[in-house]
Structures are given as structure tokens and as C-alpha cells.
Amino acid sequence: MSVDEVGRIVMIVPTYNEADNLAWIVERLRRAQPGVDVLVVDDGSPDGTGHIADGLAGADPQVRVLHRTTKEGLGAAYLAGFRWALAEGYDVIGEMDADGSHQPEQLGRLIEALAGADLVIGARWVPGGSVVNWPLSRRLLSRGGNLYVRLLLGISVKDATAGFRLFRRHTLEKVDLDLVRSTGYVFQTDLVARTLHAGLTVREVPIEFVERVRGDSKMTPDVASESLKRITEWGLRERREQARRALARRRDRSR
Ligand SMILES: Nc1nc2c(ncn2[C@@H]2O[C@H](COP(=O)(O)OP(=O)(O)O[C@H]3O[C@H](CO)[C@@H](O)[C@H](O)[C@@H]3O)[C@@H](O)[C@H]2O)c(=O)[nH]1
Predict the structure, then answer these.
(1) Which of 4, 94, 109, 136 is deepest in the core (most CB within 10 A)?
(2) Is residue 95 included in any domain, yes or no?
(3) What's residue 213's pLDDT?
């Protein structure tokens, strides 16, 4: 599928202290996919990222900026971006990091994969996918986290924590965004689980993820522990639900 076939696309780029990366990544994205719009969602970065975003938006009408006053996490920033993009009438709403980990030159692969998919994920942990320059500890955290997600939530998606993705508009409309409570990176897994629960199709395409060379990751122990806590809660709730359904079926049969 090409950009012309899928309709209007916007890539949401959340930023917190990405002054050294933002112009570089937005320019790459605009060059790689001239038909795709960009929304930067900045949480009042103290390093002036918001001013840089305003400069980019002033020079290019296809770049827009949403300024938020406080840092409330990746999930909260994306929720604000999704609501803006839905109100603006976009057909496809995407996610991408600002630090160059997600390569705009690979976005075309995700757009092509929208044929027959409601959510496309640029995945690291599928055949053909890769990660460049991550230490072993971060690889283990990501692979272990994804394994935990698959086991607890009973889903087959291999890279549910990945943040390079495209949602079709109807997917975000069907997933009730008002019910989403995840604020940190677990938001990514939350949205995959909700998409599958809604009976929609998730497709993974391999990407090469490159660790940032400028600035710092915003991954903290709090972000990791929110992920662990929420995935465990959802997994246990799902198990209880399955047990309740099995009991109800047994009762029905014995009547
Ligand atoms: N607005 C806003 N942006 C944020 C916040 N926290 C992080 N970001 C932005 O979100 C992007 C990703 O943050 P990083 O801190 O660079 O993430 P990473 O460690 O490389 O993250 C990897 O793991 C995440 C969780 O699985 C993935 O979501 C991400 O795609 C990537 O694979 C960056 O553009 C960063 O500025 C926040 O509270 N507010």
C-alpha cells in the first residue's frame, strides 16, 4: 500500500529533552516520506526542545506542535497526540521516537503492511528485525519483557513494547482511549492488547532499531516497575476471567 492509498498520515513524535535530536529526525522523516505530516508532542522540555519544534513548525506547514506543561509520561503524551490527530481527521496515526532509534527511511515498510492490518508494528524481535548498539542488559530487559507479555496476556505479538507503529483511525476509535490508564512505556503493550481484544488485526514488520547516539533514554526504574505491575495485573485478571468462563461452561453442561 502506498501513502496515496491509505489517506492522510500523521506521525506523532513525543519529546522530552530531545534538543540535539529533534530537527535531525523531523528533517529525515519529511525527506523520507514527503506526504506524511508530523506532530511533535513536547512536555515542556527544559532543554528548549519545544522552541526547536516551534521553529520547525514555522518553517513547514506539515509540522505541528502540541505543548504540554508537565512531563506526564510517554503514554499521556501519545494520548494527547491521538486525540489531536483524530480531531484533525487523519486516516492513519503513527508513533515514532525522536532520537533516531526508529529510522524514517523504514516507515515505507510499515505503510505497505497496512494492507489487511489495523495496527502495524515495526518489530525488533521477529525474523529480519534487529537492534544496533544496545547493551546486553537492555536486550534482555526488552526480550524478557516481551516474553512475559506473551505468557501472561496469551498474545502472539513478538514485540508488543515497540514504539514505531501505525494505527488506522478506526483502531483508535474502537479502542476506548478514555479507559487507558498507562502512563509510561507500558502504554505500548496496553494498546496492542486492547487492539487484539477489539478483534482487530496486528501485523509486525521487521525493522532495525538503532540505539540513540545523542541525549539520554527516559527509561527509569519507575517506568519499568509500572510495566511489570500492570502486565501482572492484566494477566491475573485474564486468568480469573478464563476460569470464570470455564466454570460457567461446566455448569451449563451439567444442567
Ligand atoms: N512528551 C514526552 N515524551 C517522552 C516522555 N518520555 C519519553 N519521551 C519520548 O519518547 C521517546 C522514547 O523515549 P526513550 O527514552 O528514548 O525510549 P527508549 O529507552 O529508547 O525506548 C525504547 O523502549 C520503549 C518502551 O518499550 C519504546 O516505546 C521505544 O520505542 C523504544 O523501543 C523519545 O522521543 C522521548 O523523548 C514523556 O514523559 N513525555
Answers:
(1) 94
(2) yes
(3) 84
Instruction: Give the position, in ligand 1's atom list, of the atom nearest the Cα of 138.
Output: 19
Instruction: Give residue 222 CA to ligand 1 midpoint distance, Å.
Output: 14
121 belongs to a structural domain:
yes
Euclidean distance between CA atoms 72 and 133, whole angstroms: 28
Residues of the chain with pLDDT under 70: none
Report if residue 216 sits inside a domain.
yes
Q: How far apart are CA 163 and CA 166, in angstroms?
A: 10
Residues 214 and 156: their CA atoms lie apart, in Å, by: 33
Q: Strand, coil or helix: what is 37?
A: strand
For the question of an ipTM over 0.90, the answer is: yes
Q: Read off the pTM.
A: 0.94
What spacing in Å lies between the alpha carbon of 204 and ligand 1's midpoint?
20
By 3-state DSSP, what share of the chain in percent is helix, strand and coil, each rounded to 5? 50, 15, 35
Q: Do the domain assignments include residue 237?
A: no
Q: Rounded to an integer, what distance in angstroms lies between the CA atom of residue 49 and that of residue 16? A: 7
- Rounded to the nearest angstrom, the distance between the alpha carbon of 251 and the centre of ligand 1 is 48
Q: Cα–Cα distance between 65 and 59 in angstroms, integer?
A: 12
Residues 6+ apart with CB under 8 A from 25: 13, 96, 98, 99, 100, 104
- Grid coordinates representing 45 are 522540555
- The string of pLDDT tens digits covering residues 47-79 is 999 999 999 999 999 999 999 999 999 999 999
